[in-house]
Amino acid sequence: MPPTERYRTAWDGYWEASSGAPGEPFWDADPALTAARDLTLLTPHADPALPIVDLGCGNGTQTRYLATRFARAVGVDLSHAAVAHARRSDPAGSAAYEQLDLSDPEGARALHARLGDTNAYMRAVLHQSDPADRPGVVATLATLLGTRGRALVLEPTGEAKTVIRSVAERPGGPSAKLRSVFTHDLRPGEVAEGEIAALLRGAGLDIADEGALTLAMSETHADGTPVALPARWYLAAPTAPAP
């Protein structure tokens, strides 16, 4: 089975077994802890009149928040089941949701043709893609930005595995949220240090800024605080043409 089909099958299985409720997935933290904070890194550089695309939107929790800050928000996901959940969770239609294979250049070009240049939000997507597919995912990001868009890319670092392992090994074993990840064979890979920067530059994007932060999960520790994964963020912009 080709890699994309393997993880499409895995993600559809996961989302089909899910209710789609906000907070049910291990990573699906409240937007107050995620997109709201993250946009403080993006909005100083981005034109709010442009649409924003949430790449790997899942059930649309973050997409719905993005729709309150940009002229238009579109969530895209590899999984048809995820997109169906996102649409059901947004009866007011504050955002739009579409199925998109991020490694498919034709799909990316078609979406850009409909939306024009966009901003983009991509939270913890690349490590879920096989290494061979990552250049294609970042190429889609570049296609969507066009010449005017800006992107915020956030990815866990290698240290995140240690945090997840500690959660899995708590007394009583993994929580239901984490067991569901294991059951459906969602394989979080590791993005090597420097790989994201190289991928962005290889797709014709400049890194306008970057830094370290943590990604809040919906999973909590025994004291009720959110599990947080060490991560890095990148503010990407199309490379300006040479004068």
UniProtKB/TrEMBL annotation:
The yes or no answer to whether the keyword Transferase is present is yes
What Pfam families does UniProt report for this protein, alphabetically? Methyltransf_25
Q: Name one GO biological process term.
A: methylation
Q: Where is the Methyltransferase domain?
A: 52-145
Q: Which keywords does this chain's UniProt record carry?
A: Methyltransferase, Transferase
Name the CDD domains on file.
Answer: AdoMet_MTases
What the entry lists under InterPro entries is as follows: Methyltransf_25, SAM-dependent_MTases_sf
SUPFAM superfamilies xref list: S-adenosyl-L-methionine-dependent methyltransferases (SSF53335)
Q: Which GO MF terms does the UniProt record name?
A: methyltransferase activity
Q: What is this protein called?
A: Methyltransferase
UniProt organism field: Streptomyces subrutilus
